[in-house]
Amino acid sequence: MALRFQNIKKKFGDLTVIRDISLDVGDDDFLVLLGPSGCGKSTLLRMIAGLEEVTSGEIHLNGRQVEHLPPSDRNMAFVFQSYALYPHMTVRRNITFPLIMREHKWWFHIPLVGYLAKRRIETKPDIRELVSITAETLGLTQVLDKHPRTLSGGQRQRVALGRAMVRQPAAFLMDEPLSNLDAKLRTAMRAEITRLHHRLGGTFVYVTHDQVEAMTMGTKIALLRGGDIQQFGTPREIYERPANTYVARFIGTPPMNLIEAQFQGDSLRIGDRLLPLPETAPRGDDRKVWLGIRPDAISLTTADAADALPVRVTLVEHAGAESLLAFDPGSLRVARDEDGQSDIMATQSGYSGIVAGDRVGLTLDIAQASYFDIDSGLRID
Amino acid sequence: MRNSVKIQTRRKDPARFLPYAFIAPLAAYLLIFHAYPLMQEFILSTTYTSLLDPSLREFVGLDNYRDVLGDPEFHKVLRITAIYTVICVSGGVGLGLLVALLLDFNFRGRGLARALITIPWAAPPVAVALIFIWMYNAQFGIFNDILSGLGISAEPINWLDDPQRALPAVLFATIWQIFPFSSVVILSALQGVQSELREAAIIDGADKLSVFKAVVWPTIRPTVAILALLLTVWSLRRFDVIWVMTQGGPLGETNTLVIDLYRRAFVYLDLGHAAAVGVIGVCIALVVTFIYFWLSARADRAAGK
Amino acid sequence: MNRSWAFHFRILAVLAVLGIAAFPVYWMAVTSMTSSEELFAGSPRLLPDPAQIGTYARALVSTPLLTWLGNSLIIALGTTALSLLLAILPAYALSRMSFRGKLLLALGLFVTQMLPEAMLVVPLYDIFSRFALLDSLTGLILANTAFAVPVVTWILKGAIDGIPTEIEEAARIDGCSRVGIVLTIVLPLIAPTLAAVAVIAFFQGWNEYVFAQTFISDESLKVASVGLASFVGELSTPMDTVMAVGLTYTLPAVVFYLLVQRYIVAGMTSGGVKG
């Protein structure tokens, strides 16, 4: 196991930030710590790096227990949200800095002697080679002798990656590294970091609040909330088999619809309609559940169709490739968000001819549905 | 057509003159109390004028400057001014930096400590001079008590009357008074050090001193440079502490430029030569001011980037 | 363990620095409350003697302390009021308006802020003697204001720079005049900075020595700085009384400063130091 957390707890004074987290991540895994702000994901990352102390618990990296070591002894690289490039150093110096620090001796602080020693390290052929290969990989060769302030956001991001790569660390830690880039560049850098992971291998730990980044880049996602892990698994598991209603609503845009339903033998009662349950679905006599259904598993029909739920359209948004539709659930009970959002949402490909105020029927494809306990919100299998 | 244009300009007039109305009193004040005295100083410096009857002036051209600049005593004044300024500035900045770094961490009562440290800065200079005179007192001063208590020197030292010790003694008092200002300014510059940058250096394996050199110093350097210039100007103009403690003595060993000027004017009653020293001093201060101006403009540009 | 050891060591160092910073003022207090016999005995007294509090009453009677402090207060308040009066509108103009000569005014303020007052004492004495401003508190207020107002203007300009223009634009659309904007919108928003510059100007007047020493010869117009300095080399006043006077002159300044020091630091570092 490349990275292992064992009963990690973190308190700031009386405030518990991480409750009790245990995780195992494999050698070439790309772990994404996902969650809303204040969920403890950054704190967890900073504890791996050694920037925060753990209150209790153990962190193991490649079989070595590291939580008591200072950051410099953990051999990890950290990419910061603000990139944290040294503003007065050229790109080359920025990238070389960790290598120089690796060979730093106390007498390097003696003026002149230390200067010469550092220049000597800098000009060693293997170090020059490493720096130039890194620069080439990231397309930074042209800007090696420029200062960070003259670079674009994307270039700065790449320099920060270069400074991390050049150390050949045991783990790459990244704290929302793309959040300062514009949407287009973010998509490009996303792909670039994924490629980097494939080429370099090793363990990546990536903190983000953006579920798209999590779904596209991660091989494993840990979804955190209030210092607890809500679910840990592959992106596909998290999307298709959310562990509870929170995960179900957090992942996917628009979020999964949660509609109150009741098991009745081999059928499911929704409002006054009875739908046949597929073979794979759970059963439970008269048990009330939340039916979780993704917006793309809802299709439209006429309001008077037999098995369809009759609803009124409240909003139609055209995004080009698809249309987003919202419906007034009428007498159906649906789960509300914190912001009181209670519409049923569906997507349709292309431009939809439907307008707000229309009455339509919804056909639910419950073969793809999830079921959650009405009280605890936990998944029912 | 012409009429309407005229009306328009007239309607605009009040707004156009508003800025001048706003600044006029201040501009007039500066002209009366700075520009005019400066001019007077220059005029006086080209005359022989006695304080006994300032209205009697005898034009002597640049003779006063020739006298002053050729006077070995004045060379000593310049030397002492230079020593006083350099030690004040390096001591004030150095000590201020050390104390700022010392205070730059989280502990209970940090706000109180930061406030208390400014006591010397808040104390009136004349009061500072008076208490230091008492502490330096050869027979009953606490400094000699401390020295004999530590077994360093049993012999009472005559701090302010000893030509060897007067300047260091005055410097000590001055630095004690100014270091809090440096600390406070540098402390606020330290707030500008990005915590992520500091952490990046720690992760890169830098030790404390390397973090300082790679992250902290580059961030605070512009502030320290400006601070040094500011302390330079203040050292050049400092009168009260030195005058009250030594009046420039003993044997002129604490006779800085402003003290020399004051002695010439109000002890030797020679306004002409005093004015010449004043003009020289103003020129030195102007040079430093323009370096300061240039540096802070550069720092602003760097900060704007 | 190691970490907390370093932490405690650091706290100790902080306490040491604080001790050094506070000691002379503390020593002033101790000396003022030590009997003359003890002062000139072999070993110094390290704690004030409460029985000697009477020194302060004696200082009131045997020295013109109240006159001095009163004059200093008049000078300080006068300097503060005149400086603020002169500085507020120009600071606003420098920050918000464009006009010809703006750069010249800025440069003028910058240079005068740096001008050593002691180097101008000769021509000012000459001018003041011609306009009958010697031996007058008004003259001192005028001279002190000349050296306080540039810094005050400069710091106020910096503070006004920090106010978003949208707030003012909204007021202008609502029909507020420029002067009205300064009075009702700008001044309340920069209240902390106003407090800071008021204290800076106050100190200029309270602490000032060279002009007061040179321009005033009338005993009844003497200010505290000059009065205190006059004890030097004079042997008839006992040291405990001298220190009592010194502390009475120092404490208001220190307490006043500590009350608003947060704003002063902000003002000094944003406007004064950065320029």
TrEMBL record, chain A:
Which GO BP terms, alphabetically?
A: carbohydrate transport
Q: Which GO terms describe its cellular component?
A: ATP-binding cassette (ABC) transporter complex, substrate-binding subunit-containing
* Xref: Pfam families: ABC_tran, OB_MalK
Q: Recall the GO molecular function terms of this protein's record.
A: ABC-type transporter activity; ATP binding; ATP hydrolysis activity
User: Looking at the keywords, is Ribosomal protein present?
Assistant: no
UniProt keyword annotations, A-Z? ATP-binding, Cell membrane, Membrane, Nucleotide-binding, Translocase, Transport
Q: Which residues form the ABC transporter domain?
A: 3-251
Looking at the keywords, is Cell membrane present? yes
UniProt family annotation: Belongs to the ABC transporter superfamily.
Q: What is this protein called?
A: ABC transporter ATP-binding protein
Organism annotation = Paracoccus onubensis
UniProtKB/TrEMBL annotation, chain B:
Q: Where in the cell is it found?
A: Cell membrane
Q: Keywords in UniProt for this one? A: Cell membrane, Membrane, Transmembrane, Transmembrane helix, Transport
Lipid bilayer topology: Multi-pass membrane protein
Q: Superkingdom of this entry's organism?
A: Bacteria
GO terms (BP aspect): transmembrane transport
A Gene Ontology cellular-component term: plasma membrane
- CDD domains for this protein: TM_PBP2
Q: Which Pfam families match?
A: BPD_transp_1 (PF00528)
ABC transmembrane type-1 domain boundaries: 78-292
| InterPro entries registered for this protein in UniProt | ABC_transporter_permease, MetI-like, MetI-like_sf
TM region(s), chain numbering:
20-39, 82-103, 115-136, 166-190, 211-236, 271-295
Q: Does the keyword Transport apply?
A: yes
Homology family: Belongs to the binding-protein-dependent transport system permease family.
Protein's recorded name:
Sugar ABC transporter permease
Give the organism, scientific name.
Answer: Paracoccus onubensis
TrEMBL record, chain C:
Location in the cell reads:
Cell membrane
Presence of the UniProt keyword Cell membrane in the record: yes
What name does the UniProt record give this protein? Carbohydrate ABC transporter permease
What transmembrane ranges does the database entry give?
7-29, 68-91, 103-125, 137-160, 181-203, 241-260
Would the keyword Transport turn up in this protein's UniProt record?
Answer: yes
Query: According to the entry, what is the taxonomic lineage of the organism?
Result: Bacteria, Pseudomonadati, Pseudomonadota, Alphaproteobacteria, Rhodobacterales
Every copy of the ABC transmembrane type-1 domain together lies at 69-260
Gene Ontology cellular-component terms for this entry are: plasma membrane
Sorted alphabetically, which keywords does the UniProt record give?
Cell membrane, Membrane, Transmembrane, Transmembrane helix, Transport
Q: How does it sit in the membrane?
A: Multi-pass membrane protein
Q: Family assignment?
A: Belongs to the binding-protein-dependent transport system permease family.
Any one GO BP annotation for this protein? transmembrane transport
Output the Gene3D superfamilies linked to this UniProt entry: MetI-like
This protein's source sits in the domain of life called Bacteria
Query: Which PANTHER family does the UniProt entry name for this protein?
Result: INNER MEMBRANE ABC TRANSPORTER PERMEASE PROTEIN YCJP (PTHR32243:SF18), MALTOSE TRANSPORT SYSTEM PERMEASE-RELATED (PTHR32243)
Task: Name the predominant localization.
Answer: membrane
